[in-house]
Amino acid sequence: MASSHASDQIKVKELLEAASSGDLRLLKEVVKELSEGKEIPDKIEEIKDATGLSALHLSAFHGRTEICQYLVEDLGFPVDFLSPIGDTPLSHAAIRGHVATARYLISQGANPVSSNMDGSTPLHHAARFGQDKLVKYLLSIGVPVDVTCNCATGAPLVMAALFGQTSTVEVLLQHHADVDSTATSIAYTPLFSSVYAGSLECVKLLIKAGADLNLKCPLDMAIRWGSIEIVNCLLEAGADPNVRNEYGWLPIERAVMLQKWDVVRMLFPLTSPVPEVHDWSVHGILQYVKSHAFMEKYDAISKKKMADLKVKGAELVKKKEYLNASFSYTKAIEIDSGDAALYSNRSLCWHRMRDGELALEDALRAQRLRPEWPKAYYRIGAAFMLLEEYEQAFQAFMDGLQLDPTNIEMKKAYWEAVDCLRKSHFGETSE
């Protein structure tokens, strides 16, 4: 019985790997072996990888159109089969920009505006990863350029700007995307998003298109993220330095707090005098920001905001709204960039959205902040697994187990990494 189970596990992995690699011959062989007289579609639909993705999701992600055709037409696989977070195979084709695969899936009835739990549609995914050809294809078949589907993350233009996809921003603007689109208090505007991404080119494109220079305080974000070029660009375009951010701070106060003296000097002649600052000079502002009254106010607001953001992030993760949760954790990190748990939580969000690079980046930040924290090593290992870097994943999980030998979750992940490493080295998994 145990041997039969082990054999089935091997076949399951072979099936998923065949779907990913495009090996149709092997896929058909494995399907035949696994069916054993049962209804084949039901059997295949039950088979998923460690992240809950089906064979159709994986084949679409890798652009294996022939495999998609076999699964849909021969096995009757639902063309809009949902992943655990509500993504369709079409969305996975969009992530990688596989136009031919996307075209096939849509020809079979795939919904081009289907949204996942975050509200992201295939156009959002294509915009996020800068897949311009796929973006143009979706727009050409009638997908609205500002499609939201009750999306809490904002329109595709917000997504493209958030990840600094300059050419995609240009494509969407050429198709008359709403330059000031925003969906919720969590969502950023396109301009704010491009500032957050540090993309001066996106900022210039959006300003040229008529973006509101003060909505969501992009100037404050530029100061926080240290881009003096973007600060200068916004001011030259007419951004108002007297607009307070959501915490109640003026841009010049933020610049003083962060000791951005070049920015302070740039802002001072453009900022209206503040009644609380009795000596209206650069030195006077500095003394005011250092005052006990100011710091008390700052600490009180920051603590409350941090607590609210942590609770909101956890709630959104529970709802599987991972992109929105990442926004909450990002805002919390802006308040306290030394909290390793925030980076760990945001790493989880990126991982659930299958962005291995960002998941790894945040996991490594968490590990640098807390070198003896097992959870950080688990996050690093999970990110490497997603990136299919199994040797690094194996090492990360092993390091984590040295810190916490009884961690069951870590042990399970460790052996999964061992199995994948063995498979990648020898081409098969031993029983």
Give your account of this protein's structure.
This protein has 431 residues and is mainly alpha-helical. The chain has 3 domains: 1-111, Alpha Horseshoe (Serine Threonine Protein Phosphatase 5, Tetratricopeptide repeat); 115-209, Serine Threonine Protein Phosphatase 5, Tetratricopeptide repeat (Alpha Horseshoe); 305-426, Serine Threonine Protein Phosphatase 5, Tetratricopeptide repeat (Alpha Horseshoe). It is 64% helix and 0% strand. The chain contains 25 helices and no strands. It has helices at 2-21, 24-35, 40-45, 55-61, 65-74, 89-96, 99-107, 122-128, 132-140, 156-162, 166-174, 190-197, 200-208, 218-224, 228-237, 251-257, 261-267, 282-289, 292-318, 322-335, 340-352, 356-369, 374-386, 390-403, 408-426. Helix 24 packs antiparallel against helix 25. The longest helix is centred in the last third of the chain and has 27 residues, at 292-318. The protein is globular, with a radius of gyration of 25 Å. ANK repeats lie at residues 85-117, 118-150, 186-218, 214-246. InterPro entries: Ankyrin_rpt, Ankyrin_rpt-contain_sf, Cul2-RING_E3_ligase_SR, TPR-like_helical_dom_sf, TPR_rpt. Keywords: ANK repeat, TPR repeat.
Could you write a compact summary of the structure shown?
The chain is 64% helix and 0% strand. By secondary structure, it is mainly α. The chain has 3 domains: 1-111, Serine Threonine Protein Phosphatase 5, Tetratricopeptide repeat, CATH 1.25.40.20; 115-209, Ankyrin repeat-containing domain (Serine Threonine Protein Phosphatase 5, Tetratricopeptide repeat, Alpha Horseshoe), CATH 1.25.40.20; 305-426, Tetratricopeptide repeat domain (Serine Threonine Protein Phosphatase 5, Tetratricopeptide repeat).
